[in-house]
């Protein structure tokens, strides 16, 4: 079964009752030429480097289900999610900022619940008991989302995505081609070892 659109991915997650995990990643690209009018839009606010962003959706086992077309580096994750239609797809599931969140599908028992990184209640002078609780929540969230981080790491094992030196116009197709190969590799049956 090949999932081609984000809507198909969300439907698949809901029908199978599995958990989906989403996160965004940045791929470094060449700096646009001096004097180009859109030169600054490729500069990432997070890493202060010239980059493009893509969003990756994996299942709970870390298999890649979807990799979005790229956006310029200055685009916020929530803006990218809105442009993809992810927020509108998740509105029935409590569509909040999807950065590093868990995606329960429409048919899952967790419908209406999207797990996002824990926010701090106390910004300053937090009591000791709160620090312990916050640390436990943070570790629990990290252990849930590590699968998508591993999937992104497998994506960036391909040298062309560690730092893309080609034309920025072609990086989106390259990312999606590599994601398709990675997805196929993850779902293919392993070849049995040779009998000696």
Keywords summarizing the entry:
196 residues; alpha+beta; six-stranded mixed beta sheet; globular
The helix/strand order is: HEEEEHHEHHEH
- Count the E strands: 6
The rough form would be described as: globular
Note poorly predicted spans: 93-100, 103-112
* Largest sheet geometry: 6 strands, mixed
Helix content: 25-40%
Q: What is the terminal separation in angstroms?
A: 35 Å
Protein described:
By secondary structure, the chain is α+β, with helices and mostly antiparallel strands. The protein has one domain. The chain is globular. The two termini are 35 Å apart. 25% of the residues are buried.
Task: Detail the topology: elements first, then pairings.
Layout: H1 6-16, E1 19-29, E2 51-59, E3 64-67, E4 71-72, H2 77-84, H3 86-90, E5 102-104, H4 128-156, H5 159-162, E6 163-164, H6 171-187
Parallel strand pairs: 1-6
Antiparallel strand pairs: 1-2, 1-5, 2-3, 2-4
Concise overview:
The chain has six helices and six strands, in the order H-E-E-E-E-H-H-E-H-H-E-H. It has one domain. The chain has helices at residues 6-16, 77-84, 86-90, 128-156, 159-162, 171-187, and strands spanning 19-29, 51-59, 64-67, 71-72, 102-104, 163-164.
């Amino acid at each position: 079964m090949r999932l081609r659109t984000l809507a198909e991915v969300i439907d698949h997650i809901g029908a199978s009752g599995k958990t989906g995990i989403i996160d965004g990643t940045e791929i470094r690209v060449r700096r646009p030429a001096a004097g180009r009018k859109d030169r600054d839009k490729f500069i990432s606010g997070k890493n202060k480097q010239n980059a493009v962003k893509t969003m990756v959706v994996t299942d709970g086992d870390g298999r890649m289900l979807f990799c979005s077309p790229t956006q310029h580096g200055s685009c916020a994750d929530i803006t990218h999610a809105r442009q993809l239609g992810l927020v509108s797809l998740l509105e029935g599931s409590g569509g909040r900022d999807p950065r590093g969140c868990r995606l329960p599908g429409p048919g899952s028992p967790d419908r209406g619940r999207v797990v996002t990184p824990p926010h701090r209640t106390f910004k300053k002078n937090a009591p000791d008991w709160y620090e312990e609780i916050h640390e436990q929540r943070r570790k629990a969230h990290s252990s849930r989302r590590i699968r998508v981080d591993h999937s992104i790491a497998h994506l960036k094992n391909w040298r062309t995505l560690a730092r893309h030196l080609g034309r920025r116009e072609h990086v989106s197709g390259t990312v999606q081609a590599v994601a398709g190969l990675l997805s196929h590799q993850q779902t293919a049956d392993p070849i049995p070892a040779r009998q000696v």
